[in-house]
Structure formats: C-alpha cells, structure tokens
Design goal:
FAD/NAD(P)-binding domain, 2 domains, single chain, alpha+beta, binds 3,4-dihydroxybenzoic acid, 19 strands, 12 helices, 8-stranded mixed sheet, binds flavin-adenine dinucleotide, D-Amino Acid Oxidase, Chain A, domain 2
Amino acid sequence: MLFTWAVRTQVAIVGAGPAGMLLSHLLAAEGVDSVVLEARSQDYVLGRIRAGILDHCSVQLLQSVGLGRRLTEDGIEHGGIYLQCEDERQRLDFVDLVGRSVWVYGQTELQRDLIAAREAAGQSIFYEVADAALYDIDTERPYLTFIDGDGLPHRLDTDAIVGCDGSLGPSRASVPESAKQVWERTYPYSWLSVLADVAPSTDELIYAWHPEGFALHSMRSSTVSRLYLQVSNHDTLASWTFQRIWDALARRLGDGIEGWSLRRGPIAERSVLAMRSYVQAPMRYGRLFLAGDAAHILPPTGAKGLNLAIADVALLAPALSALVRRNKAELADAYSAAALRRVWRYTHFSWWMTTMLHATGDPFDAQLQRSQLHWLYSSDAAAMGLAETYTGPPLAVSDL
Ligand code: FAD
Ligand code: DHB
C-alpha cells in the first residue's frame, strides 16, 4: 500500500475559484493558515471566462485587503446601465440614485490577482487533485483525503472545512439529506455568450428586452466586447452561426435606432449557459461551511453570482478566525443565517431581472415586462430599488 502524506492545517478549502482563493487571502490576513485543494489545473482555472461585473461592495472589500491595484488601473468604472425596451433606451444613473458605482473587471483578471497574491504569500495550493472526500464533518476534528496531481494519496487534518467547490463539488453533497433543504428553479431559456475582438458599441452595459428575446451588451476592455443572447434551451452552438449571432444582437439591441449601430468583429469564444436558481441551506453542517456556488446558483442576469461568492467569504473569514484561533463559536454559529439573508436578496433580484427581461412568447408576460420597464424609467423609487441591489449593499461584520 502507498504511504499516505498526512498534513494538518487550520482551515481546509475545497476549490480554488474566486471564493476559495479570496477566503485563503482573508484568512491569512487574520493569521489563520489554510490549504486549498483544486480539481483542475491552474491554467484551466485562469482560462475560464465567466462573470464581468464587480459591485461596489466587492470592490471596496478587494481594495481594503490589498487586491485593488490592477482592478483600479485596468478595470472600468460604470456609474449606471442602460435599460432598453424595444426601441426605447433609458439610462439608470446608479451614482445619482444610490451613490454607488460598479466596475467592469473580468473574473479571469480577479482570479489572476488572487493567484498572484496567494503565490507571493506562499499559500499551499494543490492543483489537479482527484477523489477529494470529506470525513467526520460533524466532529471538531474533520479531515479530507485526496490524491494529488502526481497520484500520491494525502490526508489533511483540520479544524474546519470550507466547500468553495461550486455546484458539482463534493462539499454540498456531503451534507446529509436530513440536514439540508434545497430550493431550485430552472428557467425555460438559456444564454448564448460571445466574446468578440471589437471595441464596445456602448460606454455602459445595455440590458435589452425585445419580443424576440433578451440581449446584453457588456465589455471587457476598450477593444473587447462581451455579448449575450437569450436562446432556447434546445439550441446548440451549431445552430448559431456568426452571421446569425450578429444579426440577432443588432436587431435586439436596436441597431439603426436614433443613429446607434452595433460594431461587429471576430468572435473569439462562444458558449451556451443554462439558467437556474438554486439555494441549499443551512450553509453550515458541523465543521463544514459552504460558500459561493457550492451553496447557491443565480441566473446571471443581475450579475450577482461572483459578488455573492465574495460576500459569503467576507462574512466567513472573521467567523472562522474566531473559531479556530480563539475557540469562539458565536460568529461561526451566526454565519449561515447572516449569509442567507444576502443570498435570498440576490436570489430574488436575479430572478426578478431574469423574468423581467426574457421573452416568454406569452403576450400577457410581455405587457407586464413593458410595464415594469416603464415603471423603472419613470419612478426614482423603482429605479433606486434596482440600483441598490445591483451595486451591492455594503457588508459589515455586524451582519453576523
Ligand atoms: P467556482 O468559480 O465555480 O469555483 C469552484 C472551484 O471548485 C472550481 O475551480 C472547481 O474546479 C473546483 N472544484 C470542483 N469540484 C472539485 C473537487 N471535487 N475537488 C476540488 N476542487 C473542485 N456570474 C455572473 O455574475 N455573471 C456571469 O456572466 C457569469 N457567467 C458564468 C458562466 C459560467 C459558464 C458559469 C459556470 C458561471 C458564471 N457565473 C456568472 C457565475 C460566477 O462565475 C460564479 O458565481 C463564481 O465563479 C462563483 O465562484 P466560486 O468560487 O463559488 O465557484
Ligand atoms: C456580464 C455578465 C452578466 O451576467 C451581467 O449581468 C453583466 C455583465 C459580463 O460578463 O460582462
């Protein structure tokens, strides 16, 4: 039998996505050591193209923990968004409405910053691990076993395990059925996402309702556009030629209206993304804590998935620090309920943005959607509600 390497750490983190890497950074700042286990290679983790908007709350946190330099230099601050209903486009001014802005900064860039910061600090990260399994999570001495990238078996003893391993990882599944509750909704449409090497045709994001389907114009830089189209759940990439994608984007985003036109360019990446809402509660079972996509999935229309993962670990880090350094359990005991308050706020917001902006083919739905959009155009109170959650209400440890 192979010798098993046994290591001990204060906190074991499963998953090196934004939640896991930021948590290891925040814990280190609290004087808590951690080990991160990741199933994929570092190149794979860095290459995943996902979210693109950091809200005010995330930006403040990242800046306060030394992760704001590239974000401030290379990110693009946006003071609002455009909301479009057929051929009418209106701007919501977040700064006027709630005094906060958001930043365009790709998740890939944030992941790069997190990896650079953790590597500079000597963080222990195992990439390409297999068979990560959690044991004794309902005791004060949980442990994990896994196979490292060279095929060597390990045992990792710890005071607490944090599942930051997304919706398919082993953590959420380790909670017994009798100890958890799950809420889930699958939407009857998907997103076709496009990354195009062309200058954005807008200065701020355009969220567009159109009877044919939703479209979103986002960006990554002054030379790269990020665009999304509502497609059917049965659509495949093969049925969406480059020409068909650009034609649909142009129609839905209002090419030709009041002199606006959509710039077209080479498409570097395309994929289809299913849309669902999922919440698992509680976000803690014994010494296992869940954070980010491991505990909840949001449809992307409100741009909240990444920001919610950041908010979870911002609450969790001080709670774990108190638990493992001072054996004080109060904050850890409060974590799940506190995190779930924001989870449900963002779950509702993402559901609302999604159902307001996606065409269903039902004429009654269409009238309600038009009515909601015109309400947002005409009422500061309504617009303020959208702006407040889109830009991310501030985080406070007193939330715990
Ligand atoms: P993840 O980033 O998923 O990280 C989890 C990590 O755990 C991964 O690195 C994974 O490889 C690892 N892992 C899984 N299983 C194991 C295992 N067995 N052992 C060890 N490690 C494991 N949000 C938006 O706001 N806007 C968007 O446009 C948007 N687009 C998205 C597109 C896609 C295709 C996806 C999947 C998500 C998108 N999201 C978007 C959501 C956003 O990217 C996530 O909310 C965010 O990545 C959550 O971070 P996380 O660290 O919790 O999870
Ligand atoms: C992006 C993604 C979103 O889901 C969204 O609501 C806004 C922007 C993006 O990838 O840029």
